[in-house]
Write a structure and sequence with these properties.
451 residues, mainly alpha, Leucine-rich Repeat Variant, 3 domains, 71% helix, 0% strand, microtubule binding
Length: 451
Amino acid sequence: NSGVVCLLRPLLLDVIPSIRQTSALALGRLADYDVELAEAVVKAGILPHLICALPEENRYYKKTASFVLRAIAKHSPQLAQAIVQCGALEVLVICLEDFDPGVKEGASWAFDYIARHNPELSQAVVDAGAVPLLVLCIQEPEIALKRIAASTLSDISKHSPELAQTVVDAGAIAPLAQMISNPDAKLKRQVLSTLSQIAKHSVELAELVVEAEIFPVVLTCLKDSDEYVKKNGATLIREIAKHTPELSQLLVNSGGVAAVVDCIGSCRGTVRLPGIMTLGYVAAHSENLSMEVIVSKGIPPLCVCLIEEHEDHIKAAAAWALGQIGRHTAEHARHVAVANVLPTLLDIFVDTRSSEDLKMKASRFKALKNILQKCTYLPALEPLLHEAPPSIMKHIIGQFSKVLPHDSKARRLFVTTGGLKKVQEIKAEPGSLLQEYINTINNCFPEEIVR
């Protein structure tokens, strides 16, 4: 408000280096504070002054100038675009080639804040020639430089397969894969994130990540003391497993499913989410892979997530994963039903506090329907007869109509537990599918018992 920004601008061209540097630092701190101040710095025409002589400046000024660019770029795509338009990327690339690690680090930060906004800005960073230099930076000895360079590669890769391919073509995967076992937790977080962002886009990119021999070393990250390392490790595994049965089988062969199950059991909250999704993706691919999840004791921790977790999106993911496990055959559905999952799913569906997304996933359209359509284990189905709403009831009655005609023991139990009585109370539309199911059940018993 006092006009300080305009007073600082000529000082950027002062003959004394320390004044130039201190003025830039003041502008950087102003711009870093909020978006309005950052816009004021840009409107004051600071950027051309800041970068006009940057390649000839000393390392302290280069670091400070990079900080100003980063402070402006972080707020919005529009401000990041203003930096691109003033020609700052070419100057930042020169900083990435500097001998001083601190200058490289400052430039990497600026590139990261520009690239993270959208594909167009990421492409501008790529076109400026930053990617090969960032790949060299992750191979430097300084941990702080490795971290931010990996983070920048992650933010470039996340937007599209083409941008991820550019990072791969620059030779990033091999050095990143080697750093999975680095003891520095913050570096591991970034490395795992970058590999995840590459692997998520396509089968081909996921295979390239796998070929860098990340298994079984990535499984150790699921036991890491750092929660974000755990989460990012599980995310990387999820992004690989989701693509094909072959990649999921590779995970199974390396003992990955059991490791993911242990990880879900040992943590809470959103850290669980990628692990839950991984089990769902693996189970979805085939009957055999779904059975691998069952054998690896994947169902109990998913049930625990349904009960324990407070966030609806985590419960929804657990419901979805259980639906993928149980949807293949009667045997798969039985394993899910025996774990007492069905009443929990039903409770979520009828609970008025559940979000619509969670109801969708736990309702007739998703998990519950998937399991019920295969489940012939009547002891698990019978309690639902007394609680289920009509939309779920038809699937339950449908399964009874399939099993009861062929199982005399089940028929006896159905009468003594009150199941047959409950069926008589159901009001079905004449000629409807539900009425057909009821008729089939009634035909299994003598008329006087039905009466």
